[in-house]
Amino acid sequence: MEDTKHIKISDYNYPLPDERIAKFPLKERDSSKLLVYNHGEIEERVFTSLPEYIESGSLMIFNNTKVIQARLHFRKETGALIEIFCLEPIKPNDYVLNFQQTEHSAWLCMVGNLKKWKEGPLHKEMTVKGKPLTLTATRGECHGTSHRIDFSWDNSEVTFADILEVFGELPIPPYLNRETQESDKETYQTVYSKIKGSVAAPTAGLHFTERVLDTLRNKGVDLEEVTLHVGAGTFRPVKSEEIAGHDMHTEYISVNRQTIEKLLKHGGETTAVGTTSVRTIESLYYIGVILESRPEASQEELHVKQWMPYENETNLTPIQALQNILDYMDRNHLDALHTSTQIIIAPGYEYKIVKRIVTNFHQPQSTLLLLVSAFVKGDWRKIYDYALSHDFRFLSYGDSSLLIPR
Question: How far, rounded to the nearest angstrom, does the alpha carbon of residue 85 sit from its chain's CA centroid?
């Protein structure tokens, strides 16, 4: 573990000119470029060719989270504009329950122009579902760089989800350096997004179309879904010299019983679409490790801590770990497992379940780049040099890669 903790993030830097960052998506999602890294060899294809590389009878797992319109703008009587960015629910702390709240909801939020909001609540008049109401935001205690914000509104027929749908703005990534446009409401969601809760899209999935999904199904590829709600922490740069000083953000995951059964059926192996799916799937192994010694743990106690993979030497096989989860769900009559993870995947990590990754090209000096490097055994620079020299588009709206390690 000490070797991993002492990784210098500066070793994962590369030059990324602004013109290589895709500001907008292509008109056809699946016409993007696909870099295929196959056992050390690289070739350039189009995304529609992806199914050629996925074996018939194998399993592919997607993150079905849906991006919420999480940015709320209030104007003070002085004219100052205050932006409130909803990060994660506090009361109730379950996403689904929070979205269903009427009259009151509390969230952990980042606040823009905080110095202009010294005291007192903020108010916004609006009409939702034909009903006039006043939304009030009251600032609570500070949590690091974020604050508790209590929202209240004077109409019991309107839910918090309704308010976000009307009043909220989709939070596109800060590195796009542009305002959110109406088109982003469609293009910054995957075609299979279902479960509201993310403040950033699982962007590897943006390339998939019904055409590509149908080709995979027709080939006999098993398609399954998990849910990991992507937090704003995914954009948080590593500011410490060594990654030991970087605190991974907590992300909330939900995995259905059927997905665990499918993983067992496929020998505990899968292709993961996106780094969010990777973090969810690999966390399952360590949840199984926790259950090996603590079979009666609560779902909250199944939280995977940042350094757990590097601290616990275990001979547990992926099949045993997954079976532990299935047995736990049986004992507790659960259709889905709801817990959280802070897992950091960096060089020194040994992948347990994920055998192939579909992913975009990530920011320099990011934890996502560390995850890729761990997967390709340090060969990330070869991949990124190729992408930079062959006009690949980078980041959220950019091109894609399929990584099949040596």
Answer: 17
Quick one: 144 and 60 in the same domain?
no
CA distance between the termini of the chain: 23
Same domain, 217 and 339: yes
The tokens describing 146, both together, are: 């974020």
Q: Provide the residue range defining the domain that includes 276.
A: 2-66+186-404
Residues 44 and 106 in one domain: no
Last residue of a domain, one of 136, 169, 202: 169
Q: Which residues have a Cβ under 8 Å from the Cβ of 77 and sit 6 or more positions away?
A: none
Q: How many CB atoms lie under 10 A from the CB of residue 359?
A: 24
**How far is residue 96's CA from residue 105's CA, in Å, rounded to a whole number?**
12
SS3 at position 259: helix
In the chain, the number of structural domains is 2
In angstroms, the Cα distances linking 332 to 5, 252, 326, 365 are 37, 20, 10, 41
Are the CB atoms for 108 and 88 separated by under 8 Å? yes
Query: Could you report the average pLDDT of every consecutive run of 10 residues in the chain (406 residues)?
Result: 88 96 96 97 98 98 96 91 93 91 94 91 92 94 91 93 92 89 95 93 96 98 95 78 91 95 98 97 98 95 96 92 98 96 96 98 96 97 98 97 96
- What pairing do the DSSP bridges indicate for beta strands 270-273 and 59-63? parallel
Backbone phi, psi, residue 198, to 5°: -85, 150
Task: Answer with the one of 121, 141, 169 that is the final residue of a domain.
Answer: 169
Cα 291 to Cα 194: distance, rounded to the nearest angstrom? 29
Paired strand residues for 86 = 109
